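Form 7-S
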Amino acid sequence: MDLVLLVVGLALLEYLAFGMLTGKARAQHGVEAPAIVGHPDFERKYRVQQNTLEQLIIFVPSILLFQHFWNPNFAALLGLIFIVGRILYYRGYVGDPSKRAFGFVIGFVAQAVLLLGAILGASLALLG
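Output:
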């Protein structure tokens, strides 16, 4: 479980870094709050930040439940794959939004395995 908690912490640190990069872009391009549009570089970074937040809502409980019912080391590995997928998604989206799909798919598949595994594990435990 400690390894899974470390991975969750890394995912949250990644989100914090995306937020800082978004804030830097906001200041650099003069996009004053509460505006969320104004410069393409800021808008792309903002979308990555928001999409990552949306993914974390599913990722964090899924990895914690998955590791409870299955192998914590496998859960941690899937979590690391999710984090790498988010990095690739960031690089693709910020560089050219049409190139974001590869990173998204990697993170999504890891997250989907965690979520489905969590649901399956809970269902099997419920059935006894």
